[in-house]
Branched-chain amino acid ABC transporter permease (Aerococcus christensenii), 245 residues
Amino acid sequence: MKKGRKQMTGYKEGIREALPIMVGYVPLGLAAGLLLKQAGLSVLQIGLMSMLVFGGSSQFATAALLMNEASFMDILLMIILLNSRQMLFTSSLAKYLKEAPLFKTLLLCQCTTDESYAMNMFQFEKAEKGEGQRSVDNGLWVACLTYTTWCVSTIVGALLGGIIAGPEAVMNYVLTAMFIGLLIPQLKTRLIVMIAGLSGLLALALAPFLPTGVNIMLCTLVSSYLGYWLEKRRMRHLRGKRRNL
């Protein structure tokens, strides 16, 4: 009986924590499904991509690359590059999952995104400080609910894409607007604004000389390394100032 009550409580907490993320995923998922359908993928392919890749930025990038007739290898490398950050997210959750069954750990890793990771990490850290309790089951509710919302939304978007046939020029405009919408909330510091600006300028400068896929990957790698180097330099400078105080 106690176990049933605990599971019900975890379910309610999961819905409460996941709901804001789910609401945000619906329009993005619909847009991703619609754009991927317009880019030439079938509803089945879009559904499988959402379930296996499960990455909004990767799926939007795939739509952009397909519309620009990029090669399969370009698309695959871009997906790996964009989704590689998930390894960092899930590895930082590992210390809270030591006693969890392997299949639950694997499921949580598969269903984790930036938003569900942030929510789960926040709650696990609170529990570590003694502010409430947190288990892998709580984390799974959040991750699986957001995962399901994204997959269903992209499939519905793909079905709508089969009905609503938009001109390619309009779809390219929508895709550009979507990427801008994803970028703006991330521009929280001057460093990020500078890196984003430099990455955009580099992409424009290389566009006449490189294929779209290679250009995007190269700019992503260069801007990521530059951001890492500048942040590391800033932290070293701050540590030096603290020592001098």
Observations:
- The two ends are 58 Å apart (CA to CA).
- The chain has eleven helices and no strands.
- The CA atoms of residues 178 and 245 lie 46 Å apart.
- Confidence is low (pLDDT under 50) at residues 1-6.
